[in-house]
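Support request from a user on the community tier.

User writes: "When I paste my structure tokens into the form, the page sometimes reloads and wipes my input. The last time it worked, I copied everything first. Here is what I submitted, just in case something in the input itself triggers the reload:"
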């Protein structure tokens, strides 16, 4: 009986730690998206990219296919958004954020660019995040 009681206490404690960690991790991820939004709206794609995994294994999936690697993803952004008029003003709406396992987060959202000169555009995105070396980074971005 005492063993079951102790097991219950340990499980309750671990559940509390997991919830606390996920809440903190959620704030970090949402904070990164807020910073990326600000960086984008300031016209700073280089700073915007700091939310991504700096690796050749980074995956970006867009309407033109799959791009692998941090540098190629960065170059793709520069090519698609060569000036402030095409960049417009970014707004993210978060539809779903979950933590399917430790150090992994899955986010679904909507994006919208307000572009008075080039015409507004928008769509949906999914981001797969991993906590690597103590830092949350986007390891896969599917934007349509």
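"...and here is what came back when it finally went through:"
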């Amino acid at each position: 009986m005492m063993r079951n009681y102790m097991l219950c206490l340990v499980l309750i404690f671990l559940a509390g730690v997991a919830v606390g960690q996920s809440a903190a991790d959620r704030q970090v991820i949402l904070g990164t998206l807020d910073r990326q939004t600000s960086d984008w709206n300031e016209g700073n794609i280089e700073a915007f990219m700091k939310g991504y995994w700096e690796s050749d294994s980074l995956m970006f999936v867009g309407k033109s296919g799959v791009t692998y690697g941090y540098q190629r993803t960065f170059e793709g952004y520069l090519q698609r958004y060569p000036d402030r008029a095409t960049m417009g003003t970014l707004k993210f709406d978060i539809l779903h954020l979950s933590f399917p396992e430790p150090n992994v987060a899955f986010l679904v959202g909507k994006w919208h660019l307000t572009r008075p000169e080039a015409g507004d555009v928008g769509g949906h995105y999914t981001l797969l995040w991993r906590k690597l070396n103590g830092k949350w980074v986007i390891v896969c971005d599917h934007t349509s």
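Agent notes: The reload is a front-end session timeout and is unrelated to the input. The chain has one domain: 2-143. DSSP finds four helices and six strands in the chain. Escalated to web team.
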